Amino acid sequence: xSRNLMMPNDNQHLTKRxxxxxxxxxxxxxxxxxxxxxxxxxFRQEVILSxxxxxxxxxxxxxxxxxxxxxxxxxxxLVVEVLNTGLExxxxxxxxxxxxxxxxxxxxxxxxxxxxxxxxASLWMTAFWRFFNA
Length: 134
Hints:
78% of the residues lie in helices and 0% in strands. By secondary structure, it is mostly helical.
């Protein structure tokens, strides 16, 4: 029988956890969040692209700093996508009817994803240009 991590059936979620127990429960919640994000097509596409791009960054970067920046750009896209998905879930929980503030919140989340993708693409294009024109 699996227990739903987000819907405790007692007041256990109100107690303060310490040490390794807190770390364990945090890891369980993070795992549940990643599983939830995986249901989003955009997140899956970005994970697959990152799985290709991150090893490529190790080859493409001329220094470890360049490689680290390329990898960080990929991870940043994933982080922003997860935050955007969380924002959309919260807005949808409030209500599915059209609302100007809900639209603005979703548009701002989408803009954040766009900016992270633009940053990532810019860094990668610069790295490719430096690699092949140097």
